[in-house]
Amino acid sequence: MKPLIVFYDGPCVICNWWVRKLCQWDKKDQLRFASLDSDLVKQFAHERNIDLNAIDTVIIWDQTYSYAMEVEATFMLFNRLGGVFSLLTPFSYLPKVLTNGIYRFVARNRYAWFGKHHSCPLPDPKYTHKFL
């Protein structure tokens, strides 16, 4: 099984916090990461007619056919991690209008609440293999 690729907002403080945590929690080495301004993301978006300027979300890609955004991406990620994260699966049955609404609210306010880096921080050296 190919690793999931997590496309995230590189300068976002909270996004980087989550990426660092995911690196720690990914005991089976099944996640890879790329900033939303990387060439890989641009190619991915072009091939799927996704306007990166029109979205404000994380994108998870399984490297075959499937990708997800917003809350759906979060649940795709939790499913792959398994273990204790499987306990969050029941929340995936909540109405998407509610869960994506909450996601979008946090996404819109993340810089005001958590701040923004001037550039994407470098990963911990022991996790550099996870970054594309």
Strand order of the largest sheet: 2-1-3-4
As a percent range, the share of helical residues equals 40-55%
Label the overall shape: globular
Beta strand %: 5-15%
Number of helices: 4
SS-based class? alpha+beta
Q: What is the CA–CA distance across the termini?
A: 18 Å
Number of strands: 4
Number of domains: 1
- What's the alpha carbon Rg, rounded to whole Å? 14 Å
Biggest sheet, in brief?
4 strands, mixed
Q: In sequence order, what are the helices and strands, one letter per element?
A: EHEHEEHH
List segments where confidence is low: pLDDT < 50 over at least 5 consecutive residues: none
Mean pLDDT comes to 89
Structural notes for this entry:
The longest helix has 19 residues, at 96-114. The model has no long low-confidence stretch (mean pLDDT 89). The two termini are 18 Å apart. With 132 residues, this protein is an alpha+beta fold. It has one domain (4-130). It is globular, with a radius of gyration of 14 Å. It has helices spanning 13-25, 39-47, 70-81, 96-114, and strands at 4-8, 31-35, 59-61, 67-69. Strands 2-1-3-4 form a 4-stranded mixed beta sheet, covered by helices on one side. Helix content is 40%, strand content 12%.
What is the fold's blueprint, element by element?
Blueprint: E1 4-8, H1 13-25, E2 31-35, H2 39-47, E3 59-61, E4 67-69, H3 70-81, H4 96-114
Parallel strand pairs: 1-2
Antiparallel strand pairs: 1-3, 3-4
